[in-house]
Amino acid sequence: MPSGSIYIWRNGAVVKSLAAHSKGPEIISPTGAVTHSGVRCLRLRSNNSTLLSGGADGCVRGWAIKEGKLGGETLTFHLHRTDHTGGPKPAIRGLDCQDEGGDVFIAGTDNCDIWEVDKDPEPLVFGHSGPVNCVATHPAKPAVFASVISVGSLQRGAGRVLLWQADMRSLTRSASVNYACKSCSFSCSALGSSAVDDSPSHHLAVGGDGGHLLVLEEGTFATIFKDKWGSSAIDVLKYSPSNQFLAVGSHDFFVDLYIVRNGRDGQYQRHKRCAGHNSTVTQMDWSADSRVIMTNDQSYESLVWDPESARKVPHSQHNQAWHSWTCTLGFPVMGIWQEGNDGTDVNSVCRSNNEQFLVTADDHSCVRLYYFPCVVESAPNRLYRGHSSHVTCVRFSCDDRRVVSSGGVDQALLLFETHGISQDWEWQQGKRKNLPSKHPRCDLKQCVACGERGPPPKPPLVWAATDQEGKLMGWVQPPIPDHWPDEEDIGDIVCDKLEKDLNIEDY
Fold first, then answer.
1. Is the separation of the CB atoms in 153 and 129 below 8 Å?
2. Contact at 8 Å (CB) between 152 and 129?
3. Residue 142: how many CB atoms within 10 A of its CB?
4. 12-61 pLDDT, tens per residue?
5. 491 to 448, 480, 495: CA distances (angstroms)
6. How close are the terminal C-alpha atoms of the chain, in Å?
7. Could you say which DSSP state residue 457 is in?
8. Residues in a beta bridge with 55
9. pTM of model > 0.85
10. 302-306, strands of its sheet edge to edge
11. Nearest one of 490, 388, 498, 491 to 439, comparing CA atoms
């Protein structure tokens, strides 16, 4: 019951009331009424001698059953908030236990976490307590990414920011805010040092309902800057590659620009406002040189802006190099639309950092992988399922080894490992360093992605007869071997360019 009591019924009437748990904090029910969580779950053990109850006070209690009657309390376990999640004690929403007995149980909470309950309860799986609207991958740490949720379970309009570690599949930090979070983005490079160990630290910008902007330090989630320029939700935001500007796209058709200040205590400064869209701004990308910014809106309009003057750029950008590509409109992504799609079916796209692949997220619970650029109608793709709702956002990790997708109201993140996507650079001491040129997919020893040998390299073209009589001459492709040659024969078949880029003696 919401009051925290357990009622015992007999012949359709309450014969006894047992005060089992406190009623907990106020919540808003699906009908809109204000109530309390109280007792939300009961579980009878297989031996029929113990009844387990879970409540909003974060406790699991056991009650003795003898001769069909409910007796006194036999055990109590308390779930405490963790350093990562903070906030009040988790309210228990579900319980289960092993049939063999024992004092170890599994509990589900209102924050969608799963706990192992024993003498020292601890979370097994962290979850989201509301729809996941956006994910952002770290630009220098391949295993780190952030997510934001829009509605909490205890308070309407509450939001949360979470930082995850992909290789451990664990939550490392989270913070609550008093508004629904809609978007997030990491700074492209470090903007100061961490308050914990003075290591280089990036900023994490979070946009929410009501025009709220919050900038956090990644290591501690300490607040760097907060502002409220407009009154509409911030749907997209992104740092320039030079970290000079932060662009903020909102629901009121504007793109607001902030000048970024370095340092742990540096303050951001409002710069200018770009006005010209006729609908909500949905995506944006910066050029590689940070001199222009491209934005899309819900009316299928794509505009390019000068961040210094906040004016539209009238000339063509077809030769422009872009730092990222997350816009759903544009020549390089015009082949992503499936038959029957309208402009709202694809919610998010992301180009790989090696600029060879593209992933998309759509309203059909699908994540698709394309080659980039994707310019032909009905372009070939690979389809991946797993979400049970509209996929709201998808992003490559900075080393292209992973793809992270958010499932909106299914409150789930899916983590994909890529296969066969190699790179010509890697992160070394927080900086992007180019690697020697290699075979397009594999090096001479093993595949960069999976550790297995790829197809043998093609022999170089030779000048030879192109007809049986030997009258016509031209460049001819020798037969491609079906196996890798011995090491001493490598130099005979590897093309001049590859031989120049690699030190063959190393193999």
1. yes
2. yes
3. 19
4. 887 777 787 877 777 766 677 777 777 878 888 877 788 888 888 878 88
5. 21, 15, 8
6. 72
7. P
8. 39
9. no
10. 281-286, 293-297, 302-306, 311-312
11. 498
